[in-house]
Amino acid sequence: MATTSCDVAIVGAGLGGCFLALLLGRRGRRVVVIEQGPSIPSAGADFLKPPGLRVLARHGLANLVERHGLRRDIIRYYHDGEPIKECRFPDGGFLIRPYKELVELIYASCAMEGVEFWFDADIDDIAVGDDRVEELTLSDGRRLRADVVIGADGTKSAVRQALGIEQVTMPYERLLMRVATVPLTASVAQLNRLYFSSDGWLAYLYPLNRDQARVFVGLPPEDDKEIFQDGIPALIDELKKFVTDSSDAFNALQPAKWQLIKVSSLRVSAYHKGNAVLLGSAAFACHPMTGMGMSYTLHDAEILADVISAAGGDAELLDRLLYARYEPRRHAHRQLIDYGDALAATFRDRDAYLAAFRPDLHVYGVAAAPAELPVLQLT
Ligand SMILES: Cc1cc2nc3c(=O)[nH]c(=O)nc-3n(C[C@H](O)[C@H](O)[C@H](O)COP(=O)(O)OP(=O)(O)OC[C@H]3O[C@@H](n4cnc5c(N)ncnc54)[C@H](O)[C@@H]3O)c2cc1C
Q1: What is the pLDDT of residues 94-105, one digit of tens each?
Q2: Fewest CB within a 10 Å sphere: which of 131, 228, 253, 353?
Q3: What Pfam families does this protein map onto (predicted)?
């Protein structure tokens, strides 16, 4: 079967892969995106916070993603039923838009830039020689050669494995996450509420659109077996103990389909090797309660598009620019992962949670000097 050549091969059509493909396509690069699934993925991310919104605005995509999205600017936190904090997001707040919808918008924009997508593409072999990816071979025999190869293929990245880049994965095993989509009720439409309990539970309720809401329940693994495998008889009794201002949503929870989500953090030892680069969850993963993974990934894609364009096919220059401009992103990612770890360790403890909460990272996605911290209303 014939070999296809392109400037940039991107493995993975998630947010990172699609956004980078769009930016490079706009700059006239020939881009091929290889996706193992039949379509754009449907992961659990729903919140795009201000840093990510600003990246999209810089590339003329703000109106597109806002059009059917929902803006919110407050999250109210509770512990054992009592409100303990409100986090306010300035300048219009954050956007709620289900992951699949968001990525599909960017994917649709790629078509106008001539980006090629290969769906249902099963990678058989990634040939690495002289510390660079020489060729990708699919199980149907198709071959792809590219000046630059991007591993935007998620936490289990095949590109990362082929490059032999080391990883440290830390599952957040003490808190199993379940998510369901339910009809929207008045309390959820009014406010995003995130409840913690000293028994080690959490519940987060927020609207998805005018009709539907998402409910995240986090619980100790030993409770999960009892509650979710027996047709959820005890779920509402447990929630009643600490979910105080959202009881109108209880009726909707019982018949809901509860999906189990396994959450881990991920750190890797390098972000590139030769002509191959890791992006998004292939490079780092933090606790979802930071709500910042997509924002950082969008900014990383922006940096990568600049670097790849500036290198213009010069392998040595690409390597130097990646060291200078992309590898340093590991510091910001490490900080975010550490922050997510610190938050996750305090969910049971009101005072420890309040002490660990960082408005700079939570709202703005960057570490600020103490004098620059936004003022939070503490109730
Ligand atoms: C439960 C949960 C909730 C989250 N909530 C938020 C949130 O509210 N806000 C936020 O900013 N971030 C959130 N995040 C983080 C966010 O999901 C990630 O930052 C984002 O999805 C990263 O995008 P990506 O393109 O790197 O990876 P992914 O979306 O994981 O995409 C990877 C793609 O690669 C494909 N792929 C994998 N292997 C191969 C292969 N071998 N060949 C071809 N294709 C392959 C996959 O099918 C997939 O399409 C959350 C994460 C989790 C787990």
Answers
A1: 999 999 999 999
A2: 131
A3: FAD_binding_3 (PF01494)
